[in-house]
C-alpha cells in the first residue's frame, strides 16, 4: 500500500475507513461531507494523531496497521521530503518516540 492514498481508492478497507471517518466526522469539520471520501492518508493520519482521542488513534492503527500509520507519520515529518509539518509539537514528540520504538525502520537518527 502506498503511504499516500485516498479513502476512495482503498477497496478492501474502504468501508472500515469510511465508517471510521464518519465516526470521527467532527474532526473533519473543514471538509464538506462529499469530500470526506477523498481524504488522503496523510490528512487522515495527521488529523487523528493531532486531534483524535486515544480510542480514535487505537482504531486508526487497528484499521491501517501500525506500520502504515508510522510510515505516513515519518513521511510527513521528514525534512528530506520538504513537506509541511502540521503536527503540534507535543503530538509530534510523543508519536516520534512511540513510532521510533515500535517501527524504527521508518526513522533515521536525524529525525529527532
Task: Give me some keywords for this one.
globular, 52% helix, mainly alpha, 5 helices, single chain, 112 residues
Word description of this protein:
This protein is an all-alpha fold and 112 residues long. It has one domain (7-106). Helices cover 52% and strands 0% of the residues. The protein has five helices and no strands. The chain has helices at residues 14-23, 41-51, 54-64, 66-77, 89-102. Helix 3 (54-64) packs across helix 4 (66-77). It is globular and about 40 Å long. It starts with 13 loop residues before the first helix and ends in a 10-residue tail after the last helix. The mean pLDDT is 85.
- N- to C-terminal separation? 26 Å
Q: What is the tally of beta strands? A: 0
Strand portion = under 5%
What overall form do the CA principal axes indicate?
Answer: globular
Major sheet summary line: none
Helix content: 40-55%
Compute the number of structural domains. Answer: 1
Q: Which value, in Å, is the CA radius of gyration?
A: 13 Å
Structural class: mainly alpha
User: Which stretches are low in confidence, meaning pLDDT under 50 for 5 or more residues running?
Assistant: none
On the 0-100 scale, what is the average pLDDT?
85
Order of helices and strands: HHHHH
Count of separate DSSP helical elements: 5
